[in-house]
Amino acid sequence: MPDATRGAVRYLTTKQLRETGTEAIVTNTLHLLIHPGPEKIEKLGGLKEMMGWGGILLTDSGGFQVFSLIHSKKWKGKVHSNGATFKSPREGNVYELTPESSIDIQIKIGSDVLVCLDDCRKTDLTRYEAEESVERTIRWAQRCKDHFNNVYGGTSKTGKLLTCVVQGANYPDLRAECARALVEIGFDGYNFGGFVVDNKGKLVEDEMRAVIENVPKDTIRYAMGVGKPEDIIKAAEIGYNLFDTVLVTRNARHGTLYTSEGEIRIGNSKMSLDKNPIDPECNCECCKNYSRAYLHHMMKNREATAQTLATIHNLTYYQKLIRGLS
Ligand SMILES: [Zn+2]
Predict the structure, then answer these.
(1) What share of the chain is helix, strand, coil (3-state, %, to 5)?
(2) How far apart are CA 272 and CA 262, in angstroms?
């Protein structure tokens, strides 16, 4: 899933997005909560209606962003046993994110796949902190499920899926314990939460395995925030089947493009006379019609079209990679 952070994949129309082979997108609940707000989105028929998007829409709970902004002291706020209270620096409004309000917001946005609010923390947790986060995550997941069932009628009434997040930091036994407790409550998907790479940027494989070994095979197993092509391949081998990353589109905008022969930097001066397509094995609009030299020229001149073409190419590359895994 590419990130349509604020309800748009930057530089792409929905038609262009579809043509990259993308079937599902993820949006950022926190950003949409602050602007334009879930009530407005609901009045406009939901985000899919606004975007003209016929594919799958997954929303995050908003927790990851809120908690990391609060923990890093970038935003004023407090994480407590009931969720988080925080102040948006944009308008100064105060918001409260609880398990129940997170579900309400995601329903108003018009999500197909919802994510329960979890207690996501910084890296390098002590055993005690990790245990506390697991305990809270399980309790909040139960509250999310109860609210989804009691207020909205659950999956049978809405057709929407509810997934939860498995915490446990860098303690494989806590990851396993958290997964087992969540399976007992019962969800449509189990997402690997927290930090998926260690301080050296390496995938936390033992922790990821501990989760997979304890969740049912016929569910969504979402490796949140994975990632680089080689990490996606590794996570798929472990047993994950859903991924999202900002890398694909962000790298495209910064001129790093993926090809069957490795990454290239389109801004590099040696591209200025290269008449080859980005990737001769790619069938995207960019590779079929334009040379590396033309893209290099447009990037240097900050043409928005270059951003569009680079994003189309990178997304097409990733979707092909994903299709090759199944
Ligand atoms: Zn291409």
Answers:
(1) 45, 15, 35
(2) 19
CATH homologous superfamily for the domain 14-250: Queuine tRNA-ribosyltransferase-like (3.20.20.105)
CA dihedral 140, 144, 150, 154 (to 10 degrees): -150
Q: Measure the CA–CA gap between 311 and 266, rounded to whole angstroms.
A: 13
Distance 289 CA to ligand 1 centre (A): 9
Element (H, E) at 94: strand 94-97
| Ligand 1 centroid – CA 56 distance (Å) | 23
**Centroid of ligand 1 to alpha carbon of 230 (angstroms):** 19
pLDDT in tens, 34-51: 999 999 999 999 999 999
3-state SS class at 86: strand
* DSSP secondary structure of 226-284: --SHHHHHHHHHHT--EE-BSHHHHHHHTTEEEETTEEEETTSGGGGG--S-S-TT--S
What confidence tens digit (pLDDT) does each residue in 118-140 have? Answer: 999 888 899 999 999 999 999 99
Strands 189-192 and 220-223 turn out to be parallel
Which residues are identified as catalytic?
A: 60, 244
Per-residue pLDDT of 256-308, as tens digits, reads 999 999 999 999 999 999 999 999 999 999 999 999 999 999 999 999 999 99
Q: Are the CB atoms for 5 and 253 separated by under 8 Å?
A: no
Residue 163: its H or E element: strand 161-166
Q: Ligand 1 centroid vs 274 CA: distance in angstroms?
A: 15
Give residues with Cβ within 8 angstroms of 45, minimum separation 6.
110
How many Cα atoms are found within 13 Å in the side-chain-facing hemisphere of 60? 33
Judge whether residue 326 has pLDDT over 80: no
Domain boundaries, the chain: 14-250, 261-323
